[in-house]
Structures are given as structure tokens and as C-alpha cells.
Design a protein that fits this description.
The structure is a homodimer. Helix content of chain A is 74%, strand content 1%. The interface between A and B is large, with 36 and 36 residues.
């Protein structure tokens, strides 16, 4: 039997645990930014995935709480450092750490968070400790690789779809996948189920990131939470831009390049021109198909899991939630 | 029996192992800076301390090689990030990573190095793994705290001697101490010996850092390897400056403040004026006494170790080497 509203309950349990373990200490200049960034919130997707996987395989979620915290602290560490690199000024509607304090603080507090994340991951039961640590380090390194590819692509003339998908897999999907894998491991799942759940996380993560790209151009400004056109303004090589470059004829490609080379001072006009080209090339539909393909693949991976239909249903619901869909 | 030239042999063994395990991979933008910074070299103090402690307690140094590498990779990670924060342009006579590449590369490659360091620390024999990981994380966090205090002190009106000593203990001494402790643990030492060796490392580390402060003002430019007066130029609150502020009468204190407030453009004059005040206040002697006190304390801590005189002698030699002294 799966209890009602399990996902919300796990989310609340996680928030309570996080509040009970404040990241404060001396010197304040090091710890205050950590406390700030962790209390700003967010959807707590990774810890919930971890706790849920643990529960579904019969473990009590308390076994996975420290690991869930470690995953959330790690994720927020990457945001802190990424926001310096991308010169992002706000995150979740609040000033980023390097703006509220400065770059040095964001670098150093981020470093301390990565160490704190490792301390939390080391608090899992001893029998699972070595394997959890191994998965965590592998994943953490992959996330760094993803961020480097992302920065490399900014300066490149051309990026293939495969290269782009590899990048978002590393930058986004592997951490979602590892959260599920670690939770399942701590819950007592065998390695077949751990691995399948990991693969489910990869496909879901790809769908999730492609959807993020789509919403940047075609989202509802009220619901999306960020300004529309951010990727266009900063000339990011998103899935939409890569597909547009591939599908455009020579004249349209030239038009696209010209639109992207417009200065930031002509922001609104730049966004309008790029969106106009996207519409002509039907990029929204192309991207929606790419999302659907990964999403369906993720759901079909649930078939082979040793879980009863009701339990699989919780994962399906979570997948829909994450994609902002009704079921 | 301790073999001849053990320290040099361990140093060479470490260099060979490091070369055999190149930090290369894709994307190159992430890994090339890691390989660069690790092959520039340095004295490899921390890994040698680790390997030596392991050997002295009867372990084969191969048991500690991965941990020794982890400690060196961690140390170089801190240099990478500290150099961004301090805007340092050269390190060991070579361009720093943020100058040769850029800030973002130095941030991200540094992050990857911290993860790599954890991967290496996790490669120790399983029986010691949890404890090594615990010591390593505690130490790593302390090093971040030390760096934060160091930055905080730059902007402060006054810093006490105790505060300064606490800062250099965290920023420098704990990693030297933990290197010895981890090596001893892997070699089979009991916790009494591990802890005493840790304390030896703390006192030696304090002496070492105070000596670094001293050499910045009174070193031989040819031997020191850095330009004389760097700390004075950037207004760093070194041990010398703190003691000068404490020992100066009101008029001399005003003179000191004025000298330190001189612009960088008058660099040579600024250094001359500060050094002149240091000389009048006999700061060189005061600092030498502070160094001597810690150095003697470190040596006296060796008394209680369960090692034979010949083995203690190797540690005494290493301590003298580190302080640039003949025996």
C-alpha cells in the first residue's frame, strides 16, 4: 500500500529535516551564504527522488535523509558556482550569492558546500557508504564536465544535437538519476532495479531540461518564474537554437545569425526576431516531440522494475509533476 | 633501520606515481588546467608527510599513495581558488590558472579537483576508509574557514595575535597535521600516536607560516622565490604587521598606518617605509622568537611517540628542511 500524498509528505519531511540542521557556524562570512541559499527553497526535486526511491523499495526514508540532504547541498553548490560563471543576478526570485555578497564569497562558500555534501553522503549506513560515495563522486565530476561543455558550446560555431544532449545529460540528468539510484540502494533494491531507476532518471532528466529550454522561448511568463527569452538574450546554444540552425535554409540561417548577433541593448527586438524565426521553422513542435520521446521512454523503463503497479504509479505521478503536467 | 635519504626517496616515489596517473580527460577545458597545475610541481610537502608517517609506523608507503595524492590534489585545489580570490598572477614562477585561462575555468577545474581529491581519499583500504574520509572532510572545511578569516581580516581595523594564529592554524597548519595523521593511521599507528603526530604538524605548520610571513619582509630575494614585500604592497595583515601595531607607540602607529595607506604606484617607497618601521620595532627578532617557540614545541612533541630515536630523527630532519634550516 502506498500512502496518499506520499510525494508531498516526503517533501515536507525533507524541509523539516533541513530546518533542524541549520548550516550555521563561524566565520559567519562562510556559513551565512550557505544558510541563505538553502533556505531560499526550490522544489527539492533531488532529495524527494532519493527519499521516494528508498521508500518504494521498502526502506524507511530516514535511512536516506542525510544522503538526500547531501544531494540538495551539492545541487545548490553547483548553482552558486554556475551563477558566478553565468553572471546570473537572480535565482528563484532572490539575489544570487555573488550579487548579495561577492564573487569570492560565492566561490568559497560553494567550496564549503561541496565538502558539507560529502560529509552528509558519508553519514549513510556503513554497509552502503563506499558505493554511495562512489556514485556521488562519479556524478559530481560528470556535472562539472557538463558545465564545462556548456561553456565551451557558447564559443563554438556549431553544436550537434548529440553533443547538446550529451551536455544536458551530464549537467542535469545524471544528478536526478543518481538521486534515484542512491535512494533505491539505501532502500534495499538490487543492482538491476537501481540501474533501471537510474536510466529512468536520465530520460526524465533529458525531458525536463529540454522542457526548460522550450519554456524559455514559449513558456507562460507568469508560470515559468524566469523572464522569457533569457537564453536568446545571452545567445545560449539551447536545443531550440541548435534545431533552428539545422532546419533553416541558407537565407533563414543568415537571418538567425544576424538576430543572435544583435546587442543586448535591443533585447526585446532581438527576442521577437528569434521567436519569429523559431515559429516559421516550427521549432516548438520539434522540441515538444523531442521531449515526448524521452518522457515516454522514461515511463516505459518503469515496466521492468520490481514494484507493484501502485508504486510505479507514484513514480509516474512524480514524472508528470516534474514536467508540469496534469495526469 | 631507517634507510638513507628516505625523504628524497618518498618524494621521488610520489612524483612517479603522480606522473603515472595523469589527470587528463574530456572536456579538455576542464582537465588541462588540472594537469597543468599538478605538473608545475612544488615541494610536495603534504604527500611526503603522509607517506613518511605511514612508513615510520611500519606500513608500506604504497598503502598511503592514493591518500597522499588526494592531499596534494586538495592542496592545489585550494591554491587555484585562493589565487582567484587574491588576484595572484603567478605561482611557483608560472602563470596562475585564472590568468592562463580565466576565472570560470579556475573555479570549475578547482571544483573538479576537490571531487578528484575525494575519489583518491576513498581509494584507501576499506578498514580505514570511513576515518580517513572523516579527517579529510573536517580538515577541508577548516581550510575554507581559514581562508574566510584571512579575507575578513583584510577589511578589519584590528586583528589580535590569537585571532591571527587561529587563522593560519586553519588555513595552513591543519592540512600538514592531517597529512601526518592520515599517513600514521594507514601505517597502523594507534590513535595516541596519530594525535601526537597531528599536534606536531600543527606546531610545525604555525612555525612554517610565520616563517613565510617573515621571509616576505626579511627574506633573501634570490632564495625566497617570491618578490620581497608582497604582503606589504597588498596591505595584508601578516604576523609582522600585527606585532608592529601592538608594539608601536602612538606616533609610530600613525606612521605605520600612513605607510600602509600609500598607493601601489609608490610600491618601492611603501615597502621601504614599512620595513624601516619594522626595523625600529625589532619585528624581525619578535617574529623569529615566535617561530622558534612553535618549532621547539613541535620537536618536543616527538618525544612521546612510539618510534625509535632514528625514526624521530627523520621527522626532525624533515622539520628542519621545511623551515629551510641546516641541521
Amino acid at each position: 500500500m502506498v500512502e496518499d500524498n506520499l510525494i508531498e509528505k516526503l517533501q515536507q519531511r525533507f524541509e523539516r529535516s533541513l530546518k533542524a540542521c541549520p548550516f550555521t557556524g563561524e566565520p559567519e562570512g562562510l556559513y551565512a551564504p550557505i544558510d541563505y541559499v538553502l533556505s531560499v527553497g526550490g522544489k527539492r526535486v533531488r532529495p524527494v527522488l532519493c527519499l521516494l526511491a528508498c521508500r518504494l523499495y521498502g526502506g524507511d526514508e530516514s535511512v536516506a535523509l542525510k544522503a538526500a540532504m547531501g544531494l540538495e547541498v551539492f545541487h545548490n553548490f553547483t548553482l552558486l558556482h554556475d551563477d558566478i560563471m553565468d553572471r546570473a543576478e537572480t535565482r528563484r526570485g532572490q539575489e544570487t550569492v555573488h550579487v548579495k555578497w561577492n564573487d569570492n564569497t560565492a566561490i568559497l562558500s560553494g567550496d564549503a558546500m561541496l565538502i558539507k555534501a560529502y560529509q552528509l553522503m558519508a553519514s549513510v549506513p556503513e554497509a552502503s557508504s563506499a558505493r554511495v560515495n562512489e556514485i556521488f563522486s562519479k556524478t559530481a565530476l560528470e556535472v562539472c564536465e557538463g558545465q564545462q561543455y556548456d561553456m565551451d558550446f557558447e564559443g563554438r560555431e556549431q553544436v550537434s544535437t548529440d553533443e547538446y544532449l550529451k551536455m544536458i545529460k551530464l549537467k542535469t540528468a545524471v544528478l536526478l538519476a543518481a538521486s534515484l539510484q542512491i535512494g533505491a540502494l539505501l532502500g534495499g533494491a538490487d543492482s538491476f532495479n537501481q540501474d533501471k531507476l537510474y536510466d529512468f532518471g536520465i530520460q526524465l532528466g533529458l525531458a525536463f531540461q529540454l522542457r526548460d529550454d522550450l519554456l524559455d522561448a514559449f513558456g507562460d511568463p507568469g508560470l515559468f518564474g524566469k523572464k522569457i527569452g533569457g537564453d536568446i538574450l545571452c545567445g545560449k546554444r539551447s536545443y531550440l537554437r541548435i534545431m533552428a540552425e539545422q532546419l533553416a535554409d541558407e537565407a533563414t540561417k543568415a537571418e538567425l545569425d544576424e538576430a543572435f548577433s544583435m546587442p543586448a541593448s535591443k533585447g526585446a527586438q532581438k527576442i521577437r526576431r528569434v521567436l519569429d524565426i523559431y515559429k516559421r521553422l516550427d521549432i516548438q513542435k520539434v522540441t515538444e516531440e523531442a521531449i515526448e520521446k524521452r518522457f515516454e521512454q522514461s515511463i516505459s523503463l518503469l515496466d521492468s522494475l520490481d514494484l507493484d503497479p501502485e508504486q510505479k504509479d507514484v513514480l509516474t505521478t512524480l514524472a508528470h509533476d516534474l514536467m508540469g503536467r496534469q495526469r
